[in-house]
Write a structure and sequence with these properties.
Blueprint: H1 2-27, H2 37-60, H3 66-79, H4 82-94, H5 98-123
Helix pairs in contact: 1-3, 2-3, 2-5, 4-5
Length: 124
């Protein structure tokens, strides 16, 4: 029964996170010309948020709780878009936008990891 509750928590969170990601992409559609700004913004915000949440749950010893699963695996996992990131990066390479590709990948990876760490250490 606990597994089913965990799956439902992750699924509900994924629905909310994915819906939020879609709304951000709609809101930023006008400025995302030639560069995936919405995906970059979502990934960076999601990295910071998961770092904060990870810090809170780690501090409280509740990393495996239903709430932790709902918020981190569910909402943050549904909100961030690594698969979309990977596809968009590949498209940049395919069209010859090597500098855009390099910048997008570097900023996403380096700033993403840094923001996870920042969120975590702000709470710890």
């Amino acid at each position: 029964m606990e597994l089913i509750i965990n799956i439902l928590a992750v699924g509900a969170g994924s629905f909310l996170g994915g819906s939020a990601r879609y709304l951000v992409s709609l809101a930023m559609k006008g400025i995302s010309k030639g560069f995936p700004w919405a995906t970059l913004a979502v990934n960076l915000v999601g990295c910071f948020l998961i770092g904060l949440l990870w810090g809170v749950f780690s501090k409280n010893g509740t990393e495996g709780s239903n709430w932790a699963l709902f918020l981190t695996v569910g909402i943050c996992g549904g909100f961030t878009t690594f698969s979309t990131f990977s596809k968009e990066a590949l498209v940049m390479l395919q069209v010859g936008n090597v500098w855009g590709f390099a910048g997008y990948v570097a900023i996403s990876v380096i700033a993403g990891i840094a923001l996870v760490a920042l969120g975590y250490f702000l709470v710890r």
